[in-house]
Amino acid sequence: MGIAFAVAYLAPRVNAQTDSTGAVVHNSPLGGSEKFLLAGEVFTTWQTTKIHGLPATNSFGNDPDYPMGLMLMPLVKLTDRLFLDAQMQVSANPGPGGGTDVGLNEAIIYYRLTPEINLFAGDFQPRAGLYEGILDDFTNRYGSAPIGMGISTLSEPGIGVQGGIQLGYSKLLYQLFVANGPQLVVDSTGAQNGQLNYGNYSDNNNNKAVGGEIGLLPFSNSTLELGVSGQYTPHTGNAGSPLENISNTTYAAYINYYHVFNPLMIRLQGQYEYAQTKGYNLYTNASDTAILISKFTNQMSGWFGGVTFRLSGSSNTFISNLELAGRVGQLTLPQGAVWGATHPENQTTICLTYWLTWKTPLNLVYDIYTQSGSPTQTVFTVRGMWFF
Amino acid sequence: MKTMVNIKTVLYTLVIGISSIVIINGCKTPEAIRGKSGAQLWGENCIRCHNSPAPNTFSDDQWDVAAEHMRQKAILTDVEITKIRDFLKTANK
């Protein structure tokens, strides 16, 4: 009966589609205009972690930034002006209990209005510096994640406009957007009180975040890129709550520079991020909210600076595929927060990469983490990443 | 508070500095820039973030899609991405 129903229901449509008498099918794309590419990457890490005074531990896939996983990036050119870009990830959960994390990193539709104006909408990673979304996968030449990143703007739903403009010998790139913005976490235990959640498809109030980035490539050979970005969210708390008017502001600035002294290529990369949640320390009246709110200045910052060396011009293939990188960085969390820290945490990284292909790095990474009043932690990581 | 002021000062300085460079350069594109080939633009721009892929990495249709992805990801200019895409397609024969 089900098959009969399906045939009866579909029959008129099937007949219409097989009618070749010149019927016009409206809204169909030009023949051959849709093009599809499935990109992605698989990655895993092996780490040995040593905290001063304790035995070392060894783990596969335990790196929270690069656990074992698969990322798929379906890319669809729908028409000459319309483009769909998505990114989803399945990865092992390195936390207690294991399990699997499935996430939608980005899903964006772009429309090219003019050569300089591209409209976009969806769940997107705003241009907040250069690390998040651009230098954070096989493009991360330091193997491990920089300690001071990830406190600025993360993926969120919204709309925006972006484009690149040639200005004389220089180039300007810009992005402006409106998004749902982050939501304030209110936690009676204090463990996460004052933190912000991104990626909220349902906004908790009627105000939106606004932000953007301006980047400049001042040299005609595009070797140097500088940029500043920011986002302002006037309300992060739930609508109608005493905490609604708590605002959040983030800034980021970056530099990305390369130079070739044949056969040596040198890169200089760096980024600074800052985030402040204002007004937070004023809300301490537990009788109004029945929520315990600690008094602390809710601001944090992070930065990294790195340099890489690669003899890319060498006639020896093995030598030319090696890249040596060094990086320092720091993360400063709010003092007084349960999730904060009294002192900044510092990271020193050295990484040797062998490029199996242009997009397949094998990284050997040594990180040293230090913090006043805490034992030194060293981590040796082997990271394998194959981008396809 | 002092840290906040210093950060704002740095950011305002950067914005003013960038704006000044933009004004000084003006809007007219010099011939040296207009005359750049797709191969030259490919060599200058791709390497800024990742190693440059060889032209035979993808098919023509795949390059059409990859170029659109890079147009948005790297926010390249329309002229740049068009020339780079056309170079990669002609060079992968």
Furnish the topology, listing elements before pairings.
The complex is a heterodimer of chains A (388) and B (93).
Chain A: H1 2-18, E1 35-51, E2 57-60, E3 69-77, E4 82-92, E5 100-114, E6 117-124, E7 156-167, E8 170-179, E9 183-184, E10 196-197, E11 209-217, E12 224-233, E13 247-261, E14 264-278, H2 286-289, E15 299-310, H3 317-320, E16 322-332, E17 345-357, E18 360-371, E19 374-387
Antiparallel strand pairs in A: 1-2, 1-3, 1-19, 3-4, 4-5, 5-6, 6-7, 7-8, 8-11, 9-10, 11-12, 12-13, 13-14, 14-15, 15-16, 16-17, 17-18, 18-19
Chain B: H1 2-25, H2 31-34, H3 38-45, H4 60-73, H5 78-91
Kindly describe this structure.
The complex is a heterodimer of chains A (388) and B (93). Chain A has one domain (34-387): Beta Barrel (Porin). Mean pLDDT of chain A is 87; it is low at 1-20 and 284-288. Chain A has helices at residues 2-18, 286-289, 317-320; strands at 35-51, 57-60, 69-77, 82-92, 100-114, 117-124, 156-167, 170-179, 183-184, 196-197, 209-217, 224-233, 247-261, 264-278, 299-310, 322-332, 345-357, 360-371, 374-387. Chain A is globular. With 388 residues, chain A is mainly beta. In chain A, the strands form 2 sheets. In chain A, strands 1-3-4-5-6-7-8-11-12-13-14-15-16-17-18-19 form a 16-stranded antiparallel barrel. Chain A has a two-stranded antiparallel ribbon with strand order 9-10. The two termini of chain A are 46 Å apart. Chain B is mostly helical and 93 residues long. Chain B has one domain (2-91). Helix content of chain B is 69%, strand content 0%. Chain B contains 5 helices and no strands. Chain B starts with a helix and ends with a helix. The mean pLDDT of chain B is 84. The chains are: A mainly beta (388), B mainly alpha (93). Chains A and B meet through strand 1, strand 3, strand 5, strand 7 and strand 8 of A and helix 1, helix 4 and helix 5 of B.
